[in-house]
Please model this.
Amino acid sequence: MTQIPRLTDAIRPRGSQAMLRLLCLVFAVFLGLGLAAQAAEPTLTVSDGTTERLYSRSELLTDPRIREVTIAPDPIYSRSMTYRAIPAARLLEDLRPGADDHIQVRATDGFSVSIPVRLLTQGGSGGAEAFLAIELPEAPWPVLPAKNQTAGAGPFYLVWLHAPRGTISSEYWSYRVAALTVVDSPTKRWPGLAVAAKVPENDPIRHGLERFVAVCMACHRFNGEGESDLGPDLGRPMNPVHYFQPAALRQFLRDPGTIRTWSERKMPAFAKADLSDSDIEAIIAWLSYKAGRR
Model:
């Protein structure tokens, strides 16, 4: 007698296939989530032009030289802050930069500042000591207190121990860091910034160049030379000394909001501890020199 197949016999293979497909789908989803989380993890690029190293946040947090540092007060947050941080010298030791080289610190928001390598590698010599603070994923840092800010200083933030205010340029406290790159000195990279050899060593023009590089070039170019585009070029189409009265230019460099302000203004006021009156005079002397007035 012919056996009639049961309905369940016909259904079972299809049900098994459906279950297998479901399990594969679930596995793919979890795998995708894992890969997405891995891809989204913040990374830091460290290079010297020929060698490049990519550090993940988790890798930096497990480095044996990481330590806890407290900055009191932190100049960016204007309060005491404690960080998990790694010595900046540790990140540069495999690159072996030259004594006169600089490190270009580039941030995710377009900020870019050139720091003498000697400052970043002098830890333990009694001077300021540079650290890269690392934001913990489970404990994000507060939103920056400055106007129009919507995020914190993370994931990486260059901080300094044993650095009384005024001893390290305010622009060297670089936040949202994305890359550290060994480069030539600014005047070697951008010869148009340099002053003539006949200018005396103690002339304010030379000091003005140093302060312009340390403070202004993090946001501005000069006649196209530099990296950052956060602010306007200070040489093109006109040098500020051509359209500012001297007193107004001094006031603008001290606190631009007292001269003009607008909703998207990024340039902050500078305390005298960060930019002294003599620094401002020196920057104006250099700008005047470049404008052909001296």
Remarks:
- The beta strands are 43-47, 52-56, 67-74, 79-87, 102-107, 112-116, 129-134, 156-161, 177-183.
- The radius of gyration is 27 Å.
- The CA atoms of residues 87 and 186 lie 24 Å apart.
